[in-house]
Amino acid sequence: MREQQSEIRKSNILFLIADDHRFDGIGAYGNPVVQTPVLDQLAAEGVLYQSIYTMGGLTAALCVPCRASLLTGTHVFQATASEKEVSLGQTEDASLWNLNPEQTFLPEVFRQDGYRTIGIGKWHNGKESFARSFADGAGIFFGGMGEHVGLPLHDYDPQGIYHQDTMYPSETFSSELFADKAIDFIQGHEAEEPFFLYVSFTAPHDPRTPPQAYLDRYPLADIPLPPNFMTEHPFDNGELSVRDELLASMPRTSEEIRQHLADYYSMITHLDDQIGRILAALRASPHSENTLIVYTADHGLALGQHGLLGKQNLYEHSIHIPLIMQGPGLPQGLQVSELGCQMDIYPTLCELTGNSIPDKVEGHSMVPNVLGERNERRASVFSVYKNMQRMVHDGRWKYIRYSQAGDAGSNRTQLFDLLNDPWEMSDVSEDPAMHAHIQRLEEELQAWQKDVQDPLLLQKNA
C-alpha cells in the first residue's frame, strides 16, 4: 500500500462537486434512464463508492452544513459557527453559516503544503473561509442558489473582501461558465507547484432550466416514476411546507413529477458534458498523468419519492451521495461497499497525497478501501435534520426517529431493512420481531448524540 501511495504523492487534485446530485442520478450507480457517459467512464476507470452519506444539518439550506462537514472533516455540530455555537432555533441566520474558524479547511491544508489552490463556482460558507482556502479563483458565487444565467459572480480578490459593487451577472449558463474557468486554469498552469482545483457547480439545483437540446433527450413518456412514488408523505415529518416542498403541487401528480425528473436528468446530462470538457482539457495537458480526480455532491433530494420533493428529510434519496475517485495509483473499476461519511473525504485526500491530517479532523481515511483492502472503519453512519429528525444506519438496518417540533411533526420512528427494501417502502418498526433492532439502534443513536453534543439531546436532558 505504501508503494502505491508514494506513486500519487503530491499529485494535483481536481475536485468536482455538484449541488443536489443524489447517488442514483448517475448511470454507474444503476440508473438506466439518466445519461452520464463521462461520469460512468470515470467510475469505470477509477473507484466508485456505493455507501457514502451526508450528516445533514440544523438548517433547511442543507448545502451549508453538508459542505462544511466536507471542508472541515468534522461532524455537523462542529463544522460551522451556527452548528457549534447557537441554539436549534437560530440556524437560518445566514451570517452564522461560515466555516468554524477553529478548523483547518480542506483546500487550506493543501495551500499550506505548497499547492496552488483555486476556487471556482459556488461557495456557501462565508467569504473569510474562501480567502483562507484559495490563492486564486474565478467565477466565484457566494450564495446558495440563483438563476443559471445571470448568477451574481465575483472575480478573485487577493484581499479577500469581495465588495458588493464588484459583483457582476454571468452571461453563460453556470455549468458551462464554471467549466470554462476550470479549462482556462488547466491550460494555463505551467508552474511546477501542484494544484488543488475546486470546481463547485450550482447544477442540478433548481431552478432546473436546462438548455432545450438536453431537455429534448428526456421525453416524459420515457421517464419512469420511482417505485416509492407517493402522492403525499404518509405522516407529518415536521417540514412539509418548507420552500423545496412547495415547488410542486400537493398532492403530487405523476405527470408533474415526471416533468421534474426530466428537468433534473437534463441538468445532470448537461453537467456531465461540461465535466467531459474539463477532463478533455486535462487529458490534453501535461498534468493528465498526475492528477487525482474526485466527483461528489453535497446531498441529494426526493423529487417525488415518499411524496416529497426536497432534501429536508433523512431518506436515502436525500442523504446518500455519489463519490467517484480516479487517478494515478488508484485501482480501476473498483466498487467499494463499506459505509463512509462525507467528512471522510478530507482525510482520504490528505493520505493519498502524503499530507498530514490535522488533529481536529474527525473523519476516517478511506485509503484502505480505495486501494482495495477491506477495512470497515465505520460500523454505522448518522444524520440529522433540524430538531425534528435523527437517523442511524448500520449497513443494513436504518432507523429514523422523528421528534415533534412545536405544533408540527410527529413523535414516531421508522425502521427499514435496506438489504431487502432499498427504496424504503416497508416500515417494519411496528413489527414486534423488530424490537431488538430498534432498541439496539436507539441506544447507538443516543450514544452518538451524546458523543457529538447534539443540541437536541442536550435540550431534551435540560
Automatic annotation (TrEMBL):
<dbReference type="InterPro" id="IPR017850">
    <property type="entry name" value="Alkaline_phosphatase_core_sf"/>
</dbReference>
<dbReference type="GO" id="GO:0004065">
    <property type="term" value="F:arylsulfatase activity"/>
</dbReference>
<keyword id="KW-0378">Hydrolase</keyword>
<dbReference type="Pfam" id="PF00884">
    <property type="entry name" value="Sulfatase"/>
</dbReference>
<keyword id="KW-0732">Signal</keyword>
<feature type="domain" description="Sulfatase N-terminal">
    <location>
        <begin position="11"/>
        <end position="354"/>
    </location>
</feature>
<keyword id="KW-0106">Calcium</keyword>
<dbReference type="InterPro" id="IPR050738">
    <property type="entry name" value="Sulfatase"/>
</dbReference>
<protein>
    <recommendedName>
        <fullName>Sulfatase N-terminal domain-containing protein</fullName>
    </recommendedName>
</protein>
<dbReference type="InterPro" id="IPR024607">
    <property type="entry name" value="Sulfatase_CS"/>
</dbReference>
<dbReference type="GO" id="GO:0046872">
    <property type="term" value="F:metal ion binding"/>
</dbReference>
<comment type="similarity">
    <text>Belongs to the sulfatase family.</text>
</comment>
<dbReference type="InterPro" id="IPR000917">
    <property type="entry name" value="Sulfatase_N"/>
</dbReference>
<keyword id="KW-0479">Metal-binding</keyword>
